[in-house]
Description:
Layout: E1 3-7, H1 11-22, E2 26-31, E3 45-46, H2 60-78, E4 83-91, H3 95-105, E5 114-118, H4 120-124, E6 134-143, H5 145-158, E7 162-164, E8 177-180, E9 200-208, E10 214-216, E11 220-223, E12 228-232, H6 246-255, E13 266-274, E14 283-286, E15 293-297, H7 303-320
Parallel strand pairs: 1-2, 1-8, 2-7, 4-10, 8-15
Antiparallel strand pairs: 3-6, 4-6, 5-6, 9-12, 9-13, 10-11, 11-12, 14-15
Helix pairs in contact: 1-7, 2-7
Bound molecules: flavin-adenine dinucleotide.
Flavin-adenine dinucleotide (FAD) is lined by residues 7-13, 30-34, 37-39, 41-45, 166-167, 181-185, 202, 204, 232-233, 272, 274-275, 297, 299-305.
Amino acid sequence: xxxxxxxxxxxxxxxxxxxxxxxxxxxxxxxxxxxxxxxxxxxxxxxxxxxxxxxxxxxxxxxxxxxxxxxxxxxxxxxxxxxxxxxxxxxxxxxxxxxxxxxxxxxxxxxxxxxxxxxxxxxxxxxxxxxxxxxxxxxxxxxxxxxxxxxxxxxxxxxxxxxxxxxxxxxxxxxxxxxxxxxxxxxxxxxxxxxxxxxxxxxxxxxxxxxxxxxxxxxxxxxxxxxxxxxxxxxxxxxxxxxxxxxxxxxxxxxxxxxxxxxxxxxxxxxxxxxxxxxxxxxxxxxxxxxxxxxxxxxxxxxxxxxxxxxxxxxxxxxxxxxxxxxxxxxxxx
Length: 334
Ligand SMILES: Cc1cc2nc3c(=O)[nH]c(=O)nc-3n(C[C@H](O)[C@H](O)[C@H](O)COP(=O)(O)OP(=O)(O)OC[C@H]3O[C@@H](n4cnc5c(N)ncnc54)[C@H](O)[C@@H]3O)c2cc1C
């Protein structure tokens, strides 16, 4: 049995910890509850079609399969539900996007994720403005990240595998494997901050909303109960730690122009920092010179979809010395 210290209990550290525990490894997770974490504001959307061209990203089906088994396994053993399928309507911004959709519905791979078309007339009856209509995204899911992390922490505390506080090194950890899952705070970690990270701050609003559909035109509206919804988000690479801003708020209302939300009461306004990378792939693996120091980071805007899948690769590397795929391997920057 190996012994690992995981630094950071955002989605990356939490998922990795349970994957290691499931493989009978000894794990301690440490978290400093630091401000601006991404998982603290994430709405946990798993969207199998991304970007303006609505393409399925690399390995999406593998990611969905691992998610299904990993999150449902946790739900069963922790006695709480947090991962559910959702009906996500993609509002087309242009006529061109609408035509992409018709082509994709006939494609053997993209067709798995592209569902029925809903016309502008049908949406109008719900008060939604979608002049080019929408397409139903199949196989979309949502993770209640806050509940997942709460239950994860409870579980870790119950087996004496939890430590509160910021990592500061020390003699005790010399022989342990230390896996850094610090999110964007990796920029303060001298072992790994030379890597090409590209953090981006994002804001989210929680508002009163009676619109019961999950919709997105790039900017999403995701109901959290019958009365409230999350809407977002924004991208800012400059001011990472400034917190919520008035500019961010108006940008979100402006982007969600498919529904009149601007007069809805604002219940909460959050800001967090995604740990992105310049080549948009995660960075995982071992430090090139210092043994037993590992990185599991760089999940950008899609951590909910990809972290369980990549955690399997990381665990296979840590326990069975299996090579990590080149596209995400830290060694690609050697
Ligand atoms: C506005 C917004 C909306 C998002 N929505 C989605 C979405 O819908 N779907 C999706 O897939 N992704 C979404 N994301 C991205 C998602 O949040 C991230 O991919 C994921 O949460 C990253 O998790 P992480 O564990 O790597 O980092 P983080 O969540 O940032 O966690 C890092 C943790 O490490 C701790 N830490 C850092 N340094 C130390 C230290 N030295 N010692 C101890 N503890 C430390 C921090 O306290 C923190 O808890 C969103 C992000 C933002 C900002």
